[in-house]
Amino acid sequence: MNTIVLDADRRLRGPYTLAAALLDVVVPQALERWPDLAAAYDIEIRVAAPHLAGLVPVRRRSVADTLPRPQRILIPGARRSLRIANGLAEFVRDHLRRSGPLTLRVDNLAEADQTDAELVEVLRRRVHPDLLTVEPGAYAPREGAVPPDFDRYRDEGFHHAMAEAGLEALRGMAYADDPRQWEVLVQRVAAALEAVEREDEARELYDRARRESTDPKHRATIAYGTAMLLVRHHDHARRDPEQALSWINEAVTITSLLPDPAERAFHLGFDLNGKALVELRRGRPDAALDLVQQAIDLAERHLPDEHPVHRLVLYANRAQLTAAMGRPEQALADYDAAIALDPGYPDYYLDRGNLLLKLGRADEALADYESVMRLSPPFPEAYYNRAEVRYAAGDLEGARADLDHTLELDPAFTAAYVNRSGLCAAAGDTVQARRDAERGLELDPDNPYLLCVLGQVEAAEGRAAEALAAFDRALELDQDLVPAWAGRGELAFGRGEHDAAVADLSRALKLEETAELLFNRAVAHRAAGRAEEARADLRRAAELAPDDEDVRRALAEV
Question: Global pTM?
């Protein structure tokens, strides 16, 4: 097994110091022997090792990549680095399957940037140790640091690095030294702090900026940032849409006075779009839609040939609002328009696919989910959503495979534990169902769906008291959870409490009428001596499921 020693100290290259050094070894080998393999992970290689970008064929590219920086308004979210890490891990894994195993000894791993620390975790989890062993090496951190590349940090969403390096730079810089550079740095660092859930520090920066600067556009940007912090705070209890309204109104007031029509259309449209989110959080979707429409009108009138990303965001936001307001065809038209402006941007395919699936257009939804898989580094949500399509089509094996892959990509994807545990419980695999339910509840202890599955597992394994406790807790959290009412009804019937079983099954049937629930209530009615009620339930069950042999047989016996 070959061994290489690499240094992960972020002071060398900043984000992806380790990844870039590893790619320096692997990419030339892959390009020489398996060029299609490198091309399959072109985005991940460009992000982690931009100096190799000229060597790797470009297979996937967004329109945003070709625009001037001021027009690239979509900054990657904090989760994007996980997608990049998964893509890099797959590239390394597939390369080593061809070239042979490797031991990677990593010096200064404790000094790695968050991007490299995440990559090491993913490599260890996803690449079999027979192929790759990652070992800690020496510890000898360097003095000083590579000059931070603030444009790259912003464009690629390196939020932890932007926060660390930016705060350090601001400590040694006064507003008077270079007002414009200071303002840009404050904006970018505050946005990075918000992205990594350090909102209090972001607010301190915004407040400091208001004390230092009188530049109108900067103050509008800071007011916008403050409003967004107040409506997007990761702690929902600390969200304050009313205070956010006062800040976003300040931003709108300033940008509406900008003299240049194109500049005003962009900045005012941006702020109106932000105000739409505030109004949505205030429970006023009609007002939100009106604000997005105003922003679209400005863009279409004054920015017909520039700022395509700004326009696609506005169309997508209008689509989200109209879909929620029961106007799916209008929403689809807007998603189509957004995707047409940048067919290489994956996120809105996911949103359009979700809407198509709700409309029963499963084949089109599937195509959109698979477009996400084709265009993006590994995207857990696309596999999770495809699992729903496959499950609805009766492809349980395919659905299970997609859920497995979702959790391989993101072991903290709680909703995937919900669905996979339910699949396993229905298939009689109570061991895996319990494992998934318990793992999901570690992440989200008050998830009623996971509690319901746990109750089903406890019931299947004969632990009635534990099952009832799980169902009861699930119903405390969600009174409309049909499987929990059904599960309680089955437990009551098992105890011989037929009236209690009927009561719980009736609660379930008020929420969702199914042949199975009607059949079970008929059994409980019959056990309680109520033959006519049992017969009525079975007749209705037969209407809903005319081919169900159990229903027909029971109806003949009543």
Answer: 0.93
